[in-house]
Write a structure and sequence with these properties.
198 residues; alpha+beta; Immunoglobulin-like; three-stranded antiparallel beta sheet
């Protein structure tokens, strides 16, 4: 009799667990989407990609943000991966947009993606995983993906027009170099603030 009561209690608890799991499976879950991607700090050395990720919270309590994993690939070959520690919460029954930055180094990208040569645009695909702490569920991963084209700058054309000597003695020489700079890319590139050595 005692064993039978224990068996019934165990079955009831299992049924209760299944009911809880069914409720959790049917409940609304947090969602995430990439609302925008923009470039930052484009130079001959690299570029910064900033993803605006919108998190929606269906719960009546705030939703803690845990972290974000980012992986970038081109033509099926990965050339960048990393993690972003984004803290904070998403308000109850609300949303929050979180910027996630990935810095791409052109020198490190080319050996991995052998098909990528200096060209105006290179196709890329981003796989992002946003993690949240969902109440009653625990850590929940929200996978995202985004694709586009990455501008990879080519070396600008530089030609020396003339040298204007301002001072020329045995101790010192001062001159003004008149240089023509030509942007060979189809997009704007800051050539004026670049460093030069003679």
């Amino acid at each position: 009799m005692r064993n039978r009561a224990l068996l019934l209690a165990l079955l009831a608890s299992l049924a209760g667990c299944q009911a809880v799991q069914d409720v959790l499976a049917a409940a609304d879950k947090p969602t995430a989407r990439v609302t925008a991607v923009h470039f930052a700090d484009l130079s001959l050395q690299g570029i910064g990609l900033v993803f605006d990720v919108e998190i929606r919270n269906p719960y009546s309590v705030s939703l803690p943000l845990l972290g974000m994993d980012v992986a970038l690939s081109s033509r099926g070959k990965q050339f960048l991966s990393g993690a972003s520690e984004v803290s904070g919460t998403v308000p109850a029954k609300g949303s929050r947009t979180v910027p996630v930055r990935a810095d791409v180094d052109f020198a490190g990208m080319r050996p991995v993606v052998t098909a990528v040569t200096p060209a105006p645009l290179v196709p890329w695909k981003a796989a992002l995983t946003r993690s949240v702490d969902a109440p009653g569920v625990g850590r929940l991963a929200l996978p995202l993906s985004k694709s586009g084209e990455l501008p990879v700058p080519t070396v600008p054309g530089v030609s020396l027009k003339r040298i204007e000597w301002r001072k020329l003695t045995l101790d010192e020489a001062q001159a003004v170099l008149h240089v023509d700079l030509k942007n060979t890319n189809s997009f704007v590139l800051d050539l004026v603030s670049r460093g030069y050595e003679l």
